[in-house]
Amino acid sequence: MASVVQVRAVTVAFGGLRALRGIDLDIAQGERVAVIGPNGAGKTTLFNVIAGDIAPTSGAVVIRGQDCTYRPSRHRPRLGLARTYQKARAFAGLTVRENIYLALAGHRGRHRALWQSPTDHRMRDEAAEVASRVWLASQLDEVAGELAHGQRRQLELAMAIATRPDVMLLDEPASGLSRGERERLVELLESFDDQLTLLVIEHDMDVAFRIAQRVVVMADGEQVMAGSPEQVRSDPHVHQIYLGTEAAV
Amino acid sequence: MNLRDRLTGARLAFAGLVLIMVLLPSLATAFFVNFVMTQTLILGLAAATIVFLAKYGGMTSLAQLLMFGIAGFMFGNAALAGGARGLNLGWHPWAAVGFALLVTTVAAFVLGAIASRTTGIYFLMLTLVYGVIGYFVFAQIVEISGPGGITSIQRPDLLGPPIRLYYAGLLLSVLAYLGFRAVRRTAFGLALQGVRDDPVRMASLGFNVALHRTLAFTMAGFVAGLAGLLNVWWNGQIDPASISIGPTLILLIIAVIGGISSLEGAWLGAFVYVLVFTYLRDLPLVDRIGITEARFNTVIGVIVLAIMVLSPEGLTGIGQRLRRRLRRRVAAEAAPTAGDSLPVHTTQKELGGTRP
User: Fold this and answer.
1) How far apart are CA A50 and CA A5, in angstroms?
2) Is residue B201 part of a domain?
3) For A167-226, what is each residue's pLDDT tens digit?
4) Which residues of B touch A75 (CB under 8 A)?
């Protein structure tokens, strides 16, 4: 199957610190990939490079056949890529509806219709439909800055879904959610269209292993291994990385 | 939404205020209308552009007085005929108005395009640099500013009598106020607020953050240019000192006095500033305690300090706080005493920040 996201020998250096060291990654259309690793492994930096938030020091990022290495992040939605952030970054001064509206407008280039009112019925209905998918239907008119942490994460997800992406990067989507909310999150992720490509950073192994077909393990800016959830779960090296045991390598 | 729903308290208050302003020339002295209120409207219009950029775009600009000055200088250069200072182009006054607004808008677009790459304190500093550069450009290139400024500037015949200038200021102020509020509800305004809250997130959603900032700066520059035209018609002259660092900061102070997160505050701040500036010297004992005209800015500084300590949201913030307190008291008095149950009222606490 053709790759929709290709990461080629990507290195990112912040001064003397090398956050990524020659990462290679190929993600096929419709594939569900989880990226795991301890804090400081470079997972979010990898997401930032793919999403265009930071440019790599060397290497290349190709999305749907287009070299996007040095293209700014605002071009990514046109290629069907959406992302969420580790720390929920909804627009605090706007309502849930307005947040989702911005996601809809950005994706469709509707922001070019500068003076158009954003309150037409079609957009309102779409925003309501997306909000209901992430259980925020009753919070549509609440200001995002006043939402609870878990609800802000749901809103992040709603904004990503609203763009109807082909590739979705989710940075710790289950972080801060209760057990019940995590269960619903997994159900939601599993309900996505088969053609949607998912790349997920997740510390909750239960969530990561349930949704992923392939798991990529990172440590110290490098890819340590990649394999099926079962392979990763039983790998002694992964155990050593996470638990610091003296397991044979 | 029917008419009853549309007639909210705030809208009725606004309509009432506009009505009073329209009737003011028959209620107050000519000095109060033509000096105090006309100046209030002009400075309020200019300060509103600072509030618009800060409130909706998260950009605190110190370049708005430069836009104000560019429009004034360009009008003076274009409208005056031979013998006067400046370029003496001698154009028709309305052609000069168009020219002044065009140059101001283009300057705002170019300067905004550069400044849009910066945020926060860097944006503030860059726009301060614009103000300083603008001052020196007009101070040193006397061909466009005349030695010692451009004087004897006449307003168009349509605005001949001072009262018409007052009404022009009122009309432009009302249009700018309603316009800025309407912009907030457009796709552009919503995106601008998104840029204010989180530019990185907006870019990841596909928005051109720099373009939105640039357009907002351009729009504010155009409105500041309108205020600059009113000012040059009111003053009859303009000189580089009127756009130096001192007046630049005064405009920011006006916005802060009223409340930098409130559009209404721009005109309120201007009113307080003009009132103090005009009437302070007439107060009894003021001279005896050492407050002379030369120390006027110290008085303004003390007023700003007091307002900032009492309410960082300025005078409108104090007003909102009093209104909330009054509403709570009315609600508490109206609430029925229900047996032994403990009454619980809706409470709200705002921890700073900009709210729509």
Assistant:
1) 8
2) yes
3) 999 999 988 888 888 888 898 898 888 899 999 999 888 899 999 999 999 999 999 999
4) 206
Residue B356 contacts A where some CB pair is shorter than 8 Å: yes
Q: Is A146 on the interface with B (CB under 8 A)?
A: no
Report A:157-176 residues touching B (Cβ under 8 A): 159, 163
In tens, the pLDDT along B211-268 reads: 999 999 999 999 999 999 999 999 999 999 999 999 999 999 999 999 998 999 999 9
> Which residues in chain A are closer than 8 Å to B184, comparing Cβ atoms?
none
Q: In this structure, is residue B196 part of a structural domain? A: yes
Of A76, A56, A64, the C-alpha closest to A169 is A76
- The per-residue pLDDT for range A130-156, each reduced to its tens digit, is 999 888 999 999 999 999 888 888 899
Contact of A1 with A18, CB cutoff 8 Å: no
In a domain, B40, yes or no: yes
Residues 6+ apart with CB under 8 A from A32: A189, A197, A198, A200, A211, A212, A213, A214
Which among A6-10, B81-85, B322-326 has the top mean pLDDT? A6-10
Task: Quote the CA–CA distance of A193 and B152 in Å, as a whole number.
Answer: 72
Interface A-B: count of C-beta contacts within 8 A: 102
Q: Where are the domains of chain A?
A: 1-80+165-249, 88-164
Q: Is A109 on the interface with B (CB under 8 A)?
A: yes
**Angle A200-A206-A212 from CA coordinates, rounded to 5°:** 40
In chain A, the largest separation of any two C-alpha atoms, in whole Å, equals 64
Identify the DSSP state of B343.
P
Are the C-beta atoms of residues A73 and B210 closer than 8 Å to each other?
no
* pLDDT reading at A82 higher than 90: yes
Element (H, E) at A60: strand A58-63
Kindly state whether residue B47 falls inside one of the protein's structural domains.
yes
Q: Which residue of A has its CA nearest to B194?
A: A91
C-alpha–C-alpha distance, residues A44 and A19, integer Å: 10
Q: Is A114 on the interface with B (CB under 8 A)?
A: yes
Name the residue among B93, B63, B224 with its Cα closest to residue B155: B93
Domain that holds residue B99: 32-242
B176-186 residue pLDDT tens: 999 999 998 88
| Closest C-alpha to B75, from B56, B51, B53, B94 | B94
Sheet strands side by side (includes A167-171): A81-83, A167-171, A197-201, A32-36, A214-219, A222-227
Choose which CATH entry (3.30.360.10, 3.40.50.300, 3.40.50.150, 3.30.1450.10) describes domain A1-80+165-249: 3.40.50.300
- The count of structural domains within chain B is 1
Chain A interface mutation, best of B183, B205, B209, B348, highest count of A Cβ atoms under 10 Å: B205
Q: What is the token pair recorded at A86?
A: 């580790």
